Amino acid sequence: MANRFARFRHLSVKRLFNRSTRSVAGQVLVFQVALVVLLVACAVIALVLQSERDTSAEARHRSTAVAQTFAHSPGVLAALDAPDPSKILQPLTEAARRAAGVDFIVVMNTEGIRYTHPLPDRIGKRFVGEIGPSLAGKVYVESVNGPLGREVQATVPIKNTDDKVVALVSAGMKVKNVESQVDRQLPIILGAGAAALALSTGVTALVGRRLRRQTHSLAPDEMTLMYEHHDTVLHSVREGVLIVSPDGRLMLANDEARRLLELPPDVEGRLVPELPGLDPGTKELLVSGREATDEVHLSGERLLAVNQRPTDLDGGPKGTVVTLRDSTELQAVTGRAEVARERLRLLYDAGLRVGTTLDVLRTADELARVPIPRFADFVTVDLADAVLHGEEPAPTAADMRRAAVCGIRDDHPLSEQGRLFAYQPATPQARGYGSGRSQLVSNLPSATSWRVQDPERAKAIIDYGIHSLITAPIQARGVVLGMANFWRGHHHESFDEEDLSLAEELVARAAISIDNARRYTREHAMAVTLQRSLLPQAMPEQNALDIAYRYLPAQSGVGGDWFDVIPLPGSRVALAVGDVVGHGLHAAATMGRLRTAVHNFSALDLPPDELLGHLDDLVGRIDQNEAAASASGVVGATCLYGIYDPVTRRYVMARAGHLAPALVRPDGTVTFPDVPAGPPLGVGGMPFQTAELCLDEGTQLVLYTDGLIEDRRRDLDVGMELLRDALTGHPQRPPEETCRYVLDSLLPERPKDDVALLVARTRQLPADRIADWDVQPDPAAVAGMRDAVSGKLEAWGLAELGFTMELILSELITNAIRYGAEPIHVRLIRDRVLTCEVSDGSSTSPHLRYAATTDEGGRGLFLVSQMAERWGTRYTPQGKVIWAEQALPDVIEEPVPVATAAKADR
């Protein structure tokens, strides 16, 4: 380290300038030293001027701040009101002046008479300076010749509580004190400038020394000699070099360039377009002047890699420099590598693009599209017909269906998609299917075996220009599922053995996806079959509602959506719709159990809220049992259950986590009634609540599952509004058309979730088919009711049912009078059956039993059960209703059955 410092001391400015300025490094050194001196001098002058300006500004700012601070100091106003303000203010101003570092603080009245001054003899005399702006309430800064000399002073007003100027304060500094601060800073500035000059000069010397070392202190003539040596080397390298002027004239061509381009000796100075033997593409590149990187151009039998760059990027003369490299052998190796890379890219793309869905036809189409046009001009995929239905393929190619056709053009003569084939044993497809090995037919026009299948089509294929074929078996898990056929025309050379191995690899990757899709198709078909068997196969006969429905299974898997229409006594009808969360066989089986449970509970004629309560307990038990048996259980289930009475037009419903139904009024308006939302089934702990609506005849009830309105691309509220729009304004549209229009409006082509939709238009039972009476709680009233009922049955043409109905009615009314409570009411309903209802205010339920021989009673309900088709009890908030049904005689014209829409899948 000491040696380095010693060497730096010896590197004096004198020695630097004693160097010869003849060299390039010496000339650069002189110029740099002069520039550094000029820059340092300018910097010192700028710093001096900046210091003077900053010091003056600091003096003004300090004077203003001190004057304002003193003007607002506590006690100043009080001192001004004193008999002798100078006595109080003089010591205060002197103390403040010394503390603030200013030369004076003067307090004066509004006429400019001083109260204070550093020179006591100046007290009582007029202030030297302008006080007008300060009397107007402003701060005024000025430079004056005062008692202390040249001064910089700031004058500010002193205001009382009424914002009135009562006095003035002036603070300032002498100019010579300000200048003395500048003088004190000047040595520092000059010292810094000198240090900067010394440091810059030293750095410049080091730069010059480095430049001399890099140029070896060469003079211009010596550097010329050096370039001559470089020129000699330039003509010895194994890479051609050309320099072209802006006007397209060849300025330089080394020996390698002359050899590669076969240029004549007198080529330099000639225009490039006039050079003989150059390829037109090479001429165009040399004249254009554009940049080029490893562009391949032909020169005789050589392939040249050409690079071209402009020569004026670093301020040099305009033109271009071109390098040429013989890449004939490298290009051949690169071509083989490119082919291998392209094949790997094709296999990679096949892995990404084939098998994106679990649809057999879609997967086959993806396999047909991937190789075009990089590997083949046309691709056809033939699968065993059983595979398309999810079944195991046949052992021979006698039942093949074309699953996909794709090519570079659409006017090809290949067989269309969907056609069924029975390949002849001699065809390449049959041989490949039977052996599980790929077949290569490199020259179709000369081959004969493939023509036996369809000679006319084979001739059309050859006339079209298709000349080569590879047929590869699609096999997975040791089973051949079909054949993939790759066809080439004029756009490709004939297939070879390397192409055969690529085709086998490509088909092998797709075969697993096709087999997975086949297995999924089979499982999906099984699940759909199971679910359809668990859903209603036909709508029951009833007159209360016009019914239409749809069920659409999801494309991704069968779900647990379901619906049901259940006739109830008294011409009432129960509507149910539900959803089991999840997909697959488990969800479908759980749906069947829930639907069966709803049927069983509805047979008890329970209100909707009680039915959902029992269903909630059942789902909870199912979930506990399955959770104990395995890790999977019922994830969740929802249900909407309602009962419509065509006699009263009342619709009572309750829901467990399900969406509210839509109501289409006869005027075309659509509403979603406010039904209390209970928790999903299986949660437990919360009771369910009912909502009761009075519906006009012709109102449409639209019940649905969430798959209809929910989608990944839209919110639930958006789906509800779309459903409202689809239903609004069409009150007279039949339920069947409503189902079709709603599905077309709301569902995509491939729904992600299954959908259940139930549309019911309400009817009202005519008043002439209903008869009711109030019964007095007196046994003598029974005889009168028998006569009234017999008369009504005769009016309806049902006199032959009179005896049986009188017997049933007598027993029911007698039980109500004896064991029930008021009020007692009797109602006859003539619909598809004749229903007799006896209601009373008691909730005590009668029980059917066998009476002993010695019993005096207990035979009434037994007689009712024997005489009636059905009988039962249902409870109401007012008590209970005991009902009994009788079939109508065949001679009676029954009501026109409701047109029931058959299920349909889109």
Automatic annotation (TrEMBL):
CDD domains: HATPase_RsbW-like, PAS
Predominant subcellular localization, coarse grouping: membrane
SMART domains found in the cross-reference section: GAF, PP2C_SIG
Record domain GAF: where: 349-524
GO cellular component, one term: plasma membrane
Domain PPM-type phosphatase: residue ranges: 542-762
Name the UniProt record assigns to this protein: SpoIIE family protein phosphatase
Species whose genome carries this gene: Streptomyces chartreusis
